[in-house]
Fold these 4 entries.
Entry 1:
Amino acid sequence: MGVGAALPFSESEMPSLIVNIDTPSVDEAEAFYAAAFGFTPVRRLFGGAIAEMRFAGQIFHVHEAIAGAAAFDAGEPRRYTRHWTPLHLDIVVDALEEALAQAVKAGAVLERPIAAHDWGRIAGSAIRSVTDFALSN
């Protein structure tokens, strides 16, 4: 869908939560999420500065945000070096090894190899060593 296209859902289906992801390159992030996890590009907003994507029934807005720019009035500048964040994506998959290989091929960095727990298995990864995510089954 192009910029200014109609919403991909009716008003009664309006999502109650939109996950926002800041990135220094919308094009690279959109390509990564599509190739690594199968996110579906929906449309571009604000002159292409935001890529709207859908995954697992959820809407994601991938924002282009310049490193060093303040996030609203918070004063904390955006940075894209490796850092801890209280929010990350856990993507549950059926075939962990295959999903991990696909994510690495798309540019992810494996930070913690697959580990087994009583609730399932998990591998920790990061996108360009900046934003962490986990794959589990």
Entry 2:
Amino acid sequence: MGKYYVQSGTLRTVVQAESGRKAAIWAVHQAMQQIFPLDGPPSTGDEHPAAVLHAKVRVSERGFDRADAGQLTTLAVLAEWNEMVTALDRLQRLLHHGEVSPESTDPPSPADPPNPATDQLQTLPSAIDPLE
């Protein structure tokens, strides 16, 4: 895993990730956790002011404010982050609310009607260019 310097607006963070794109998603996740925490109550804002994202997310393996940093649109990174959070939420509901048994590995028979709660998650094509 590489070390990436990710910046957008007031957000500046160093992330270890498999790629620049994944580092950008994780950095946006950190920013979004300030507003929409997945676990626990929302931040009171007393610790640090919330990061404000710019229209672009810049990612570099060399440091902040580099002219050669890769750029992704924040909207594209947010869309991919949203896909990830939605998939995780769906998996959590499926596993913790008894809709699907983790022990059940048998595929449905052709006679079984479609069940939206057990349909496989589909990966949408990424709108983000890789930074590798």
Entry 3:
Amino acid sequence: MTRKELAMRESSLTRRLLARLRQRGHYAIKIVGSPQQQRGLPDLVACVDGTFVGIEVKRPGRKATPGQARELERIGLAGGRAAVVTSLAELEELLTELEGAETPAAAEVADLAETPAPAETPRRVLRWAPPPWPLERWL
């Protein structure tokens, strides 16, 4: 790891990681914390080849807080991938691992492509009905 990477602020690293995820064609967003939000959510959330990924960004040598570690564990238990990333190289390792993996979602899509389409089902038409009270009350 270079000296420049060691001195990089977490916000700068987060921007670089987000840009790299998007550059490689993955859906990725930055989670911005607020008082109304659940504590411990990862900094970045992405979808890599059908796999939900939660990424907690930390400066080199730092660890996730207990709340962040708990949320990352919950993501893993739900079938997603979770990681604490401290450099661009670590993100590249994670992406290489995920991009080559056969995901259950990809297998299901392949199975669906081989099955014949079901017979056309009749469409249900929904019609709007006025409420039983006068609309003027609410305008």
Entry 4:
Amino acid sequence: TGRFDEAIQTTEQLLKRHPANKLALLNLASIHIQMGQNEKALAALNRLLQLEPGNPPALMNRAAAYINSGRIYEAQQDYQSLLEQVPERPYMAYIGLAEVAEKRNETKEAIKYYKLYLETAPKQTEEYLRVSTRLGELQNRTPP
């Protein structure tokens, strides 16, 4: 965690000089998420979203932090907002909505969103393969 701590310190110094630096806020939040410090990540992301409501990377990261914190409803809200903010890339939201559905044990809903992801996402990526595999697992254990 030494490198993370150093990155946090550097980013916080930058934010003291430039408190509205959106990229620094996003980077700070990402580091906190990687360290499992979801509340600190949420604080940075909420600041960023006050500066730029609807910022897609901030919404995605905040939804991830919410999921990590067990705040599934808030994560779902952010993924729904993301769907509205980035209609040309809906797969960014579909994968999150599928994860939310899985957390809620709503398997059929998760399957629906994984299918939507596969219909709209770029093919031949690691994420696409992972989602395809996960969809197959869910379908195999779910009655029609």
